[in-house]
Amino acid sequence: MMKSKILILLLVCALTLGSTSCKIVINTGGDASSQSSSGQASQNDTSEISSKPEEISEPEPSNTDVEASSVVSAVTGEQDPDDWNPLVIQRQALLDENSMCGVAYIGYVKYDANDLDENRTYINSLLKSTGYWDDFEFLQDLPSDRYVGTLDGTELYLIIPFDTKAKVNVNHWKVDESNGFVGEADAILYTFDNGAPFLLKCNASDIIPDTQVLILDSNGKKLEYTPRISLMDGSVETVANNQYLVDFTIRG
Fold first, then answer.
1. 42, pLDDT greater than 50
2. Model pTM score
3. How confident is residue 82, by pLDDT bands cut at 50, 70 and 90?
4. Comparing C-alpha atoms, which of 246, 154, 252 is closest to residue 207?
5. What is the mean pLDDT of the chain?
6. Are 124 and 22 in a shared domain?
7. Mean per-residue pLDDT, 116-133
8. Contact present, 251 and 234 (Cβ < 8 Å)
């Protein structure tokens, strides 16, 4: 009797252990299946992401400079020696006034004095009679490429950038109905690789200017200046895009 009870008890324990073992196997299998399904979903998600094309923005169109020869005739002369950069004592005044540029209106010049080498005697005589020859001594050895402008210009200006390393453009200034008579630069006439002073012959009309001086200094600061004479009092314009130029004009 006792033996029978022991056999029955052992049988029940064996059945219980076997059932628990099966549950563990099933549960483990279920977890693995779930992990496998999850892994497959992750792979599918990754596949969908990698298949999406990258968004590429189109580049902005670049501006193209207009050739000066197609717009306006300019003063002829050699444009090679850009290493002339003399000592200019007037730059101290520019430093004192925190100004990027100085200007002087020298006076009327005949419209056909378009080449400095051919008209040096005439230009030197004008500089001497107006006092600039002595007060601005660097003008005594001004290279021919530092005398620029438009063929019909009759006003002569002296332009003195403050920064000796500045980049300078002399642009043609167009004023007509196409820009509402406000004016705009439509062609580059001359480009200088340093901030040496130069003479500018421009403005066939005393009402409408025809040139713009654009200066970009070595710090990235820009000045856009349109030389002209005030019709109110005959003084030279010294305001440019909320900046002030120093007026070096000699008044007799």
1. no
2. 0.70
3. low
4. 154
5. 77
6. no
7. 97
8. no
Domain C-terminal end among 52, 77, 92: 52
Asked whether residue 74 is assigned to any structural domain, the reply reads yes
Give the DSSP per-residue string, the chain: -HHHHHHHHHHHHHHHHHHHHHHHHHHHHHHHHHHHHHHHHHHHHHHHHHTSPPP-PPPPPPP-PPBGGGT--B--------------TTHHHHHHHT-SEEEEEEEE--TT---TTTSHHHHHHHHHHHTHHHHSGGGGG--GGGEEEBTT--EEEEEEES-TT-EEEEEEEE-SGGGTTS-EEEEEEEEESS---EEEEE-SSSSS--EEEEEE-TTS-EEEE---B-TTTSPBP-EETTEE-EE-----
Q: In what order do the strands lie in the sheet with 101-108?
A: 147-149, 198-202, 155-161, 101-108, 246-247
Residues 103 and 18 in one domain: no
pLDDT at 19: 43
Tell me what pLDDT residue 162 has: 98
Asked if residue 164 is part of any domain, the answer here is yes
User: Any residues with CB less than 8 A from the CB of 96 and at least 6 apart, and which?
Assistant: none
**Strand bridging mode 211-216 / 222-225:** antiparallel
Domain that residue 215 falls in: 68-247
Residues 73-91 have a mean pLDDT of 68
Asked if 163 contacts 195 with a C-beta cutoff of 8 angstroms, the reply is yes
For residues 215-238, give the mean pLDDT.
95
- Same domain, yes or no: 97 and 209: yes
